[in-house]
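Standup notes
- DV: blocked on the single-chain target, sequence here:
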Amino acid sequence: MTGAGRFATGLVVGLLAVLLIGVLASRGDDMDAATTISTTVPETSAAPADPWIEEGEVMIGATAILPRSLNVDGDRVYFDYDLAGLSPYLGEGEESTEQDTRYGDFMAMPERWLLTTENGAQIESTTGPFDTSVSFELPEGDAARSIALVGWRVAVPFGDRIELDIAAGETGEIRRGTVNIETVLEQTVSTIVQIDFDGNGDSWDASVALRPIDTRWRVSGRQGGGLQLIWEGDNAPDTVVIEDAGFEMRPVAGEVTVVAEIDSGGDARGDTG
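- DV (later): unblocked, structure below
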């Protein structure tokens, strides 16, 4: 084909392409207009901030304080409550004691309380682990106005390990106290090791209980925080590694209103949350 022929052919193809693009663009505009859909977004209400909380209940971390009763008897004010933990259990199954199981329900526990009187006096009181009642003594001629929680304990995990030679009298220190091997009984087919524990920790602290790291040791008994181990066979090791794992309840200062207003009859009124 000559140069003139190629030019003519290219010109025709180019014109056809321009026309095709124009047609497609026009059809696209028509299709966009035909498929436009108007929508209305329905109004939605916000999710409640504290879906687990009922009126009068107060949250401290993942623990709820559930008011039960409030009584004024002369110059004494008595406030009774329950605790409900919303956190997963922190203990470890069958080795946990009853106290550890109760601790595992709560990530926070009340400790320090403050009652304010009508005359502005502030009366402090404290509660211990698992208490469900707090009382205050009013000044003569005064009346209770409100109750606040101004201090509580929060759970913080800890873990300690200690390695001891398997011999009577071997002693070692961990953060919660002293571990002592009291007795070693070597028998024909087993070795029995009796371990004492002398705790010196805070009364708020909780432990899953001492346990051996090597699972070939069998725990056959516990007494006073210690434990008795049995190694089956005549190949008992020369040392034993003991673990103390649990969580301590560390103090936290703050202020949370628990009872906003108290009338002279000892009933709460108004906002108690």
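- Follow-up: Residues 3-35 form the longest helix (33 residues).
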